[in-house]
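Take a sample.
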Amino acid sequence: MALALEAAGWRLEQTFGRGDDISAAAAGVDVCVIATPDAAIAEVAAAVHPSDGVLLHLSGVTGLDALAGHRAAALHPLVALPDEEAGAAALASAWFAVGGDPIAIEIAELLSGNWFVIADSDRTLYHAAAVVASNHLVALLGQVERIAASIDVPSAAFLRLAAGALEDVERLGSAAALTGPARRGDEATIDAHRQALAERLPDELAAYDALLAEARRLLPPDEPT
């Protein structure tokens, strides 16, 4: 975040780590960013003396009440930040969930221009959607790796297929992007998949069935289910 803001013209005054005296961290700055694990946000905020600077956290699930007593804002980048350089570059096109003081919108506008306001009461569901979009997608691709490995096919061969599906969802929406046997009502193929998994990879059947049910939820009411 610091690298991205510096590239956009902001000045980094100081950084703090564990064990540092952070009592005056919000003094003499426009924004003091708390970039800690969610469970530590309230404790860190309580250790900072209220000042003119906005106290801003980067959590997707934590409400503004964790910053009680401060000018408070939340700015959650809806993007993976694997390291400093790649993360700073990713923030230039990221979506941001914002709340609290308007400076959160100012930062989001400066970095990428992509933002939406999220109410504290909706943060848990918002974060659940983010976990499904990222972590659960990775877990699903882990299943692809396991199935592919069982038949000596490189899992990389499926990544272009997965990327194309994401592009189709972005372009068309999830319902229109759905293809495959569930979309066609091809129950014979689905039954064959389930039988093969049950016989050779029984631990993978439950996930297949769960995602099959989710795929069927995308079908219009008058199509086969």
